[in-house]
Inverse folding.
């Protein structure tokens, strides 16, 4: 579920928590997708997520594509180890930017993606 | 030793009961946190798949039955269902695991996570039921020496 949403320095911050599975995924998707707009910046705080199944991966993929299509950016922060594992073995960390802390995620969103890659 | 089986209708609102059953069994087997998480993920993925594709999409009504069997070295979860025959081990591994996000197909990830998340996975069809068996090894240190 989504426990908090706010906007800070032009960044939409969504705090996710609890279990992200087939039952909770539709509500999360409905809440996150409207945040996407041209050049949007979105930060997903995953530090309170206790579980994520492939239903969560599907939402993240859909969200990533829509953001990329709108020349926006998305970063994940605070991925718990077990969820990091799931995202790593499925190749999701090949394209998602993930940072340990909110501050690092916010900083990354304020530098151009090309510079962040270097 | 086995835990009393749980039988529920093949409907999404009962998936939480299946997960609770697995977590209780994992705790009783004293699986470590990571192994318990991966077992839960594996059973959740397969059960969700059965309910979505075996029952909801086809409009067929049916049942899921879960049983935990404990041996000194293993926790074995048997997940039975009355949907049409479907063998998850025949589902091809997603070809796009390391493709760019726009070329990826999200299908198949659940089964990939399920089969890779446990020490062994078996499928069989018997008496009109599908049986998926998930095996997690118990830590040797916790196994009494006989």
């Amino acid at each position: 579920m989504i426990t908090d949403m706010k906007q800070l320095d032009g960044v939409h911050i969504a705090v996710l928590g609890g279990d992200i599975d087939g039952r909770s995924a539709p509500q999360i998707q409905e809440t996150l997708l409207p945040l996407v707009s041209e050049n949007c910046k979105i930060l997903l705080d995953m530090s309170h997520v206790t579980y994520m199944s492939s239903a969560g991966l599907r939402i993240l993929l859909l969200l990533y594509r829509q953001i990329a299509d709108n020349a926006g950016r998305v970063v994940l922060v605070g991925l718990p180890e077990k969820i990091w594992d799931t995202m790593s073995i499925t190749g999701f960390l090949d394209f998602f930017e993930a940072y340990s802390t909110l501050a690092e995620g916010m900083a990354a969103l304020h530098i151009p993606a090309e510079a962040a890659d270097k | 030793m086995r835990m009393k089986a749980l039988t529920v209708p093949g409907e999404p609102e009962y998936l939480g009961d299946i997960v609770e059953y697995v977590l209780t069994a994992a705790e009783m087997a004293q699986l470590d946190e990571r192994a318990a998480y991966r077992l839960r993920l594996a059973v959740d993925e397969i059960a969700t798949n059965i309910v979505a594709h075996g029952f909801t999409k086809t409009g067929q009504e049916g049942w899921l039955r879960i049983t935990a069997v404990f041996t000194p070295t293993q926790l074995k979860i048997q997940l039975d269902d009355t949907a049409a025959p479907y063998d998850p081990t025949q589902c091809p591994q997603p070809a796009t695991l390391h493709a760019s996000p726009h070329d990826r197909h999200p299908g198949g990830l659940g089964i990939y996570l399920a089969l890779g998340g446990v020490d062994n996975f078996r499928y069989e069809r018997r008496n009109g039921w599908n049986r998926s068996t998930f095996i997690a090894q118990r830590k040797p240190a916790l196994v009494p020496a006989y």
Observations:
- Residues 21 and 54 of chain A are 7 Å apart (CA to CA).
- Residues 2-116 of chain A form a domain with the Transcription Regulator spoIIAA fold (CATH 3.30.750.24).
- Chain A has a mean pLDDT of 93.
- Chain A has one domain: 2-116.
